[in-house]
Fold this protein.
Amino acid sequence: MLFELDGRSPVIVQGITGRMGQKHATLMQRYGTHIVGGTGRVRSGEAHAFPVYADCGEAVRATGAVASIALVPPQNTLEAVREAAAAGLRVVVTVAEGVPVHDALHIRAIARAAGLIWVGASTPGLCIPGEIKLGFLPDVSLAPGAVGVMSKSGTLSYEVGRRLVARGLGQSAWIGVGGDPVKGVRFADLAAGFAAHAATRAVLLIGEIGGDEEEEFADVWGRLGAPKPAYALIAGAQAKEGVTMGHAGALVLGERGSLGSKQKSLRRAGVQVFDTLETLADAIARVPI
């Protein structure tokens, strides 16, 4: 479903009446996203640019929405996803960082039971460039193209995207999996989708130390036979073992999850791994895509 989203897909914003909800609903609509309304609390005398509904169920019945983005605090994310699942939405993006681990485990169980694709937590969102953006990815880093991007780090991926766009390379799809330790979509979950996605002719993974997502992706990508050129950049070379660096999930305990383990696994699966943004961008730009 993620790769099927486009500018015609009706989207609602959970928390649309809040300051961030109003701001980003407008920016996403300006990008081309089909924002059909949202949910939130309306105070007497307030006027809003988008239709506001009491809950996701009412919003879906009125608009036919298939996806939502929850612009709510971390402590409200569980309820937002529960509501999205009950309404029959297909995709929900949650941007809040620091969702309590117990809540995140509950969210993942709810999403799986409902067949709901949960992107997050702690994600800048996702984008099919030129079609739809759910989140706050900067427009300067986006352009329609053929490189499929998946990333844990928002800011690092923004810079990589900007450098590739400057070299004439855009993206077929951009999915931020988020940096929290418990999340919905992981790198390995995207491997088959990017492999089958006709518009994607090369894959870029932007990871970081901690967890084993990169190793999981490498296992799946290798089993798929490394079907497309793939590139990777892993942040956190200077991180110390046992110390969380940046994201809650960027914590190395033992060998698996370390920079060396990730690089070794990815290279074994046919992925080219780079140490700097510049060498990565230059290498991708040299290959006809």
Summary: Residues 249-254 have pLDDT under 50 and may be disordered. The chain has nine helices and 13 strands. The chain has two domains: 2-119, 138-286.
